[in-house]
Write a structure and sequence with these properties.
This protein is mainly alpha-helical. It is built from 23 helices and no strands. The relative contact order is 0.08.
Length: 298
């Protein structure tokens, strides 16, 4: 409740209610206690604290069933129980960690969705899908290959075994299945450094040692391996403070103790911090940054 107390005292502030509704610090007890607030039902439906017992308890509420289909608490029992409502979201359910194909046949849905997206699929499953042409490459090359490239079970061996497929190396470079050692050890692969900038395996050491590469500083600003200390020591780099405001390393103490940074309020609303007791100073600074920006343009 401490997390929410500041919001209650400052309801006139420009909160991002969709981000707050999805924020993992929010519990449904707070929603129950304050039903008059501007809750966003897409955000609430996707919130990781929401369980399907709550959905059963409040079936009349305007749940977003596509967001519920992506909720990490979804189980196969829920899929079966709410099948009529979740029918519109089977493409999402095929990607859910709870879903196993296990010989199931769902009328109107191709098993290619399962092979392309589901995290339970193994490298051998992907080999099987490619060998048996389970997905239609010629029908939608861009989306099919891009999603296959982002699958956590894709490997460099699979890519080398299928050189005729139009692999998306930008997406492959983002995939956390690949490490900096993979990049260094396979220089013949056309790695995309903008994509690598989003890869959580990339460290500042990797960036610093390859200044000739086209690193994307907007993506790096959000990378969990980038800290405020790194930014402060490299202020000449084109950091993106909107993205850094949503960086998982940011805490309210950091925001409070570094007012010289123009923190982005919308991004901070989505950042899953544990307390908001310093928010008033942050809001004041945001207004001042806005005034300074207006002054620069006049």
């Amino acid at each position: 409740m401490e997390w929410f107390s500041y919001i209650l005292k400052h309801l006139d502030k420009p909160w991002d209610w969709k981000a707050l509704s999805a924020n993992p610090n929010l519990t449904f007890d707070i929603v129950r206690e304050y039903p008059h607030l501007s809750w966003d039902w897409e955000g609430l439906s996707a919130n990781p604290n929401l369980t399907f017992d709550i959905v059963r308890e409040y079936p009349h509420l305007p749940w977003n069933w596509r967001c519920l289909a992506a909720n990490p608490n979804l189980t196969m029992s829920d899929v079966e129980e709410f099948s009529s409502k979740l029918l519109c979201a089977m493409d999402i359910i095929f990607t859910h960690k709870c879903f196993h194909l296990n010989g199931m046949s769902l009328p109107g849905y191709s098993s290619e969705l399962y092979y392309l997206y589901n995290p339970n699929v193994t490298s051998e499953d992907i080999r099987y899908a490619i060998a048996n042409k389970i997905y239609n490459i010629s029908r939608r090359i861009p989306s099919t290959i891009s999603n296959l490239c982002f699958h956590p079970s894709i490997t460099l061996d699979i890519i080398r075994e299928n050189p005729s497929l139009p692999w998306d190396y930008s997406v492959l470079s983002m995939n956390k299945a690949f490490t900096w050692d993979d990049v260094i050890s396979n220089p013949d692969i056309p790695w995309d450094y903008e994509g690598l900038s989003e890869n959580p395996n990339i460290t500042w050491k990797n960036v610093r040692e390859t200044p000739d590469k086209k690193w994307n500083y907007s993506a790096l600003s959000h990378n969990s391996n980038i800290s405020l200390d790194i930014i402060k020591k490299n202020l000449d780099r084109p950091w993106n403070y909107y993205e850094f405001s949503n960086n998982p390393n940011v805490t309210w103490d950091i925001v409070d103790n570094h007012p010289q940074i123009c923190w982005n309020y919308q991004a901070l609303s989505a950042n899953p911090m544990t307390a908001l007791h310093h928010m008033q100073k942050c809001l004041h600074h945001q207004v001042q940054c806005f005034k300074d920006e207006l002054g620069d343009k006049t």
